[in-house]
Amino acid sequence: MLEPSGVKTEPAPADRLDQWPSRAALLHSYQTRHMRLVTILLALLGLALPADACSRTYSWDDALRAIREVETGGLPDHGRGARGDGGKALGPFQIHAAYWQDAADRDPLVAAQSHSVCLKDLAYSRQVVGSYMRRYAKAETARLRAAKGTLADVEKVARIHNGGPRGHRKAATLAYWKKVRALLP
Question: Mind telling me the catalytic residues?
């Protein structure tokens, strides 16, 4: 390169194309910065979560207590005698005849009594719910019964209870789940 005075000068190292970082080096630099930012954000979010949020486990009793509270709104005597849906849903868990029949088809102890027993018998109603869930949420029910259930396990059980066998996939059961979630320890 010639200067106006006629003196030849070398270009500055930064101006030379062979001195620029490679495409791979630029990508690596970007990814590294991006990962640092993500790591920092996750760490900050982790500080905002309760200490037991990731390690909390739930039991079958936790799940059923919350479901019962949502179903019968804290009525006296744990919802015994409660009737809903025009008298079709009975007892503490508001069990419909089709739900009961599904449970009775698979459990001789449930089949030994009638749907009407759900109206006043809390233990029997719990048995009906358990039988139904052993069919449609088998693994989740097993973990909850072992007091090793996750929040996702309680959610699936609650949404199936509210929306039927595929209730955990229905958007219509999300509002119900939020009510149950609010009542969990």
Answer: 71, 85
